[in-house]
């Protein structure tokens, strides 16, 4: 049986994603869960899109293996194995993992799907659509001995907590960042002021792709004193605000944040303003980034246009790899920490609700490790040769 995620646009203009079966009927258990996420939990549309895709995979596996979706919680280990090898196209034939089977999804992707499926199952238990024993299949009782000291019980005494039963080990790899040299090469490969501004907003302000194409001109306070605008934030900065935009762009966090900007970004913005003013169709749009050269001139840029731009720039710059939007953001985060930034500062700049989300950026690069060793004062010691 085929299950697909599907976008639902409501008369109010707000959209969310749901799951359809092979007869194009809404799967009620999935739909109620996804509407709860979107409207009761105030999650972004993109979040419901991701969760709908994960739930569709789970229901597809249950259908292919002849299991009811609640009973499938007893066999999530088999679901994990299936996830590694199942083709992404739901119309493809069922997969039977065996020796030499190609792995389609890595540990990180499998864990993301599992997290969404757990939320789906927990929600249905909470509303009485699934039996209570389903939760027991998702978690086991752990104790604080394997937790960091900071979050253990009082006086370090272990205490019980719910620990997920199913999770693949993810290799502890450093974040995949774009180097400063790669960013410089991308900027030099740009053929317009708009494209230079896009690259620099990711690399110098750490803006996510969805936040980037959702920026409005009113969000930019590139002035020394914004108090006349009713903004108490000092210095030049931009605001990242979550909205429901017509181009489906959205900030990930519900909380808005102000990000300081430097002179290089302001200069890039000034050049873009001049370039944009030459296109009369673009003057009325409040979106910062609009189509200037193709498509409907003046329309806000699409999310996918950012990836397409970076792919083109990477090729034009002669880079050995294709730079992706998140790699510019990771480069910004790594540079903040290398310059002596604190974890709480980085979390605020990146829009992380918890400083723990910024922990991956604490892993220093090999260059930073070498610099740390070379900063150690050399002792006054003369090494004699073996025959001295």
Description:
- This protein is mainly α.
- It contains 13 helices and seven strands.
- The protein has helices at residues 28-40, 45-64, 76-85, 107-126, 133-138, 180-189, 193-205, 209-213, 263-277, 303-316, 325-338, 343-350, 366-374; strands spanning 4-9, 15-20, 139-143, 160-164, 220-221, 237-240, 257-260.
- The chain has a three-stranded antiparallel beta sheet with strand order 5-6-7, with no helix packed on it. A two-stranded antiparallel sheet has the order 1-2. The protein has a two-stranded antiparallel ribbon with strand order 3-4.
- It is globular and about 65 Å long.
- It starts with a strand and ends in a 14-residue tail after the last helix.
- The mean pLDDT is 87.
Summarize this entry quickly.
The chain is mostly helical and 388 residues long. The chain has two domains: 4-137, no CATH class; 180-370, hpI Integrase, Chain A. It is built from 13 helices and seven strands.
Give short descriptive properties of this protein.
388 residues; mainly alpha; hpI Integrase, Chain A; three-stranded antiparallel β-sheet; two-stranded antiparallel sheet; 40% helix
CATH architecture of the largest domain: Orthogonal Bundle
Shape, per Cα inertia axes: globular
The helix/strand class is mainly alpha
What's the number of domains? 2
End-to-end separation in angstroms reads 81 Å
Q: Write the CATH fold name of the largest domain.
A: hpI Integrase, Chain A
């Amino acid at each position: 049986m085929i299950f697909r995620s599907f976008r639902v646009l409501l008369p109010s203009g707000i959209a969310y994603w749901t799951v359809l079966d092979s007869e194009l009927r809404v799967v009620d258990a999935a739909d109620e869960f996804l509407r709860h996420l979107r409207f009761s939990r105030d999650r972004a549309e993109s979040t419901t899109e991701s969760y709908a895709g994960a739930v569709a995979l789970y229901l597809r596996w249950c259908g292919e293996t002849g299991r009811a979706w609640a009973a499938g919680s007893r066999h999530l280990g088999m679901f994990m194995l299936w996830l590694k090898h199942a083709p992404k196209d739901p119309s493809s034939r069922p997969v039977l993992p065996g020796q030499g089977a190609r792995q389609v999804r890595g540990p990180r992707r499998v864990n993301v799907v599992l997290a969404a499926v757990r939320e789906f199952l927990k929600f249905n238990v909470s509303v009485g659509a699934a039996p209570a024993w389903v939760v027991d299949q998702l978690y086991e009782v752990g104790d604080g001995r394997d937790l960091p000291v900071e979050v253990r019980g009082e006086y370090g005494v272990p205490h019980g907590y719910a620990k997920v039963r199913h999770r693949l080990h993810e290799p502890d790899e450093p974040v995949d960042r774009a180097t400063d040299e790669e960013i410089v090469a991308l900027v030099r490969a740009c053929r317009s002021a708009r494209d230079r501004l896009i690259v620099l907003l990711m690399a110098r302000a750490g803006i996510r792709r969805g936040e980037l194409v959702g920026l409005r001109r009113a969000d930019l306070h590139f002035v020394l004193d914004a108090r006349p605008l009713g903004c108490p934030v000092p210095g030049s900065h931009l605001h990242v605000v979550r909205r429901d935009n017509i181009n489906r762009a959205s900030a990930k966090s519900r909380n808005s944040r102000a990000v300081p900007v430097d002179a290089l970004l302001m200069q890039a913005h000034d050049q873009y303003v001049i370039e944009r003013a030459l296109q009369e169709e673009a003057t009325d749009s409040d979106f910062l980034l609009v189509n200037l050269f193709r498509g409907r001139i003046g329309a806000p840029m699409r999310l996918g246009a950012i990836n397409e731009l970076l792919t083109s720039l990477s090729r034009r710059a002669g880079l050995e790899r294709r730079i992706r939007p998140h790699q510019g953001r990771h480069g910004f985060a790594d540079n903040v920490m290398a310059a002596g930034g604190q974890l709480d500062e980085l979390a605020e700049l990146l829009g992380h609700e918890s400083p723990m989300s910024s922990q991956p950026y604490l892993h220093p690069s090999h260059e930073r490790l070498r610099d740390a060793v070379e900063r150690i004062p050399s002792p006054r010691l003369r090494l004699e040769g073996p025959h001295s």
